[in-house]
Amino acid sequence: MWGAPAEPADSYYEVRPECTDVPVTKFKIKPGKTLSVRKWQTSFAPDGQLDIGKTLNRIHRGGIHPTIRGEVWEFLLGCFDPKSTYEEREQLRKQRREQYQKWKNDCREIFPVVGSGQFITAPVITEDGQPIQDPLVLLEANNAGGDGPNSTEIVQELINRGPLDKKIIDWLLLLHQIGLDVKRTDRSLVFYEKQENLSKLWDILAVYAWIDTDVGYCQGMSDLCSPMIILLEDEADSFWCFERLMRRLRGNFRCTESSVGVEAQLSHLAAVTQVIDPKLHQHLETLGGGDYLFAVRMLMVLFRREFSFCDSLYLWEMMWALEYDPDLFYLYEEPTPSLEETKKKAKSMRHYGKFERENMKIKTDEAPLPISVFLVASVLKEKSTKLLQEARGLDDVVKILNDITGSLDAKKACNEAIKLHKKYLKKVLLVSFL
């Protein structure tokens, strides 16, 4: 209720008592600002259609209450069309759960550890597809054991298969790396003391790596997937939320022989910095940092290392609310006869996020830059004086940026990103008219 004190959000994402060096959470649940359960429920019509415009501004003002975060994220990430009914969403959810289970069963047939409650942390095959007969550390399982396969059975099954095709080899080579990253992901949280939660994270990433052959798995994807496991109870729902997030970010992880996917965003960051702070850009170029590689981590995992777990979720949902496009569902969904084309009619501008509305004013064939680029630019802008005065090499740049961990304010960072975005668009438009 109005006037009630802000409630700390830490209790919803419990940290292990021995982990004393994690960043302090700044996000607080603020009555009248944070999207509450009641406000969320009143945003739906009787048939289930959502007035998304009602929620976007409130999310930007005060984030989302942790108890409804998962279901709100499903809309923000484009899992569901706001104009769908309860019945339509339930049918779609059922179809997606069945599809996920099918993919998971396909993976399990190839490698029986998937879905067993266990996961691997050492390679089981060589680069040329030969089974490794004596892996030192193979299975991570709970203390009670379980009915999952043992290492000998796994290797023997691979041997019995004979020659493996390239897709299977490439996938199997990724699985132990996923396992190693799963063991390191958000280990300060009590949630991941449970083996079943670690295994769920490994299973989702393994299935995703199987279906997305262009990207497979890259370090950092476990950091993006982890919150989905925590916020959504059903594993398949967590998978689809992660899959939708990867639709936005997979370009960052796609690598070729000549380039790394995130390089495109780094070049955009350089262009933005050159416009809004040319002196800083010139200084970074002089230091040999004109490629902006020092910002890779911030862009790849969306500031997961710079914020506490809770604050990073708050940052993400504000970003997604600001970038929201009500046609996101249709942009991601495969065209099928069951989709109602009539729903793709013109939307009120209030159904678009504030950042997206600014982009819509610009008539260009080029895709708009994501807000994450301007978030990083806002951090560089804030540290501009320090970087100009103290950075004498790239090591100094990295150290100065590493020192921001735990000190950033998510809402302030988003507001600064919007200001820089407007400034950038204004200058770019001015140049284009000259």
Automatic annotation (TrEMBL):
InterPro entries: Rab-GAP-TBC_dom, Rab-GAP_TBC_sf. GO terms for molecular function: GTPase activator activity. Residues 63-323 form the Rab-GAP TBC domain. Coiled coil: none annotated. Gene3D superfamilies: putative rabgap domain of human tbc1 domain family member 14 like domains, Ypt/Rab-GAP domain of gyp1p, domain 3. SMART domains: TBC (SM00164). Pfam families: RabGAP-TBC. This is Rab-GAP TBC domain-containing protein. It comes from Gossypium darwinii (Darwin's cotton).
